[in-house]
Amino acid sequence: MLSASLSVALLFPHLVLTLLQLQPSAGNFVSSICSPTDKYTNGSTFEFNLVHLIDYLYRDATTNGGFSTLSSGNWPDEAYGLIMCYDEYTVEDCISCLRNTTSLEASEICPRSKTAVIYYDQCFLRYSDKNFFSQVNSHDHYCSYDTISPPIDDASMKFVINFISNLSAEASQKPRMAALKMMVKGTISASVQCTRDLTPQGCRKCLQRAIDNDDFSRCSGNMNAAGMRLLYGSCYIKYETSWNLISINNSFQPKQYLTAGRVSSGWLYSTIQWTSFDPSRPI
Ligand SMILES: *[C@@H]1O[C@H](CO)[C@@H](O)[C@H](O)[C@H]1NC(C)=O
Ligand SMILES: *[C@@H]1O[C@H](CO)[C@@H](O)[C@H](O)[C@H]1NC(C)=O
Ligand SMILES: *[C@@H]1O[C@H](CO)[C@@H](O)[C@H](O)[C@H]1NC(C)=O
Ligand SMILES: *[C@@H]1O[C@H](CO)[C@@H](O)[C@H](O)[C@H]1NC(C)=O
Keywords, A to Z (predicted)? Predict the structure, then answer.
């Protein structure tokens, strides 16, 4: 983990700051993408607005099905925020995660950043000084994959991609913009979800990025990983396969594996953080 971070840092020196902030500060913290130079000052009106925004977001989301978009303050110090739970978790897990997204915590993870995405296992928080609502954000992203199970073969990977593609179409048509599905025999379980400020077209576009940009194979270094978690700025994809597990354990429980994340003994994540992944974006 440390050496992986270091080698990424050597390749992308501008990422060092972000990587240094990867230490978990709450039980379920996963990763963060913080604006490195666009900073607010201590005691500024923007800081005041942001602190209130994060508090309002938490309270609004707990009564709004685990999702909220809000803004706080007036131009030019307005703060915009979005918070969302991943749908495969229970309401209790969702609320516990939302409760952890405090402004104090955010200021420790992304000190004085005006724009940030902070991923937790069960939810994520995004904020900015610019209005980003309804815009597809798949350039901010983070991925991790199952490094314990052996990779799956090309035909299986093709099936996974097809499965997720179908699931993406389904999710974009639903009010909650989420779909979770597992095969009856437990060979695959997958979960996809978009932030609910997107249009159905925007949702599909965000999820399609994984397929169009070949992020599945990029994430795992050209391996067909048996399980993966791709978290974007406004959507996410997770999948877990059991082609390898089924021979050793017939009592596979996909949901448990999928939701257990880093807690499950079956998962060991190798983490790669990309903030400037698109060739079109300056490194
Ligand atoms: C919230 O943070 C606390 C303290 O860091 C941690 O024990 C708890 O597990 C976190 N919540 C979730 C849902 O993980
Ligand atoms: C801003 O406040 C933080 C903590 O309150 C402190 O660590 C930091 O040095 C302050 N920065 C400036 C520029 O005053
Ligand atoms: C995806 O959907 C198509 C069309 O409904 C179907 O034929 C195909 O079997 C589905 N693929 C998977 C992997 O579920
Ligand atoms: C199979 O999986 C179940 C559920 O995860 C676990 O309780 C059991 O110990 C496993 N069996 C073997 C032989 O690994």
Answer: Kinase, Receptor, Repeat, Signal, Transferase
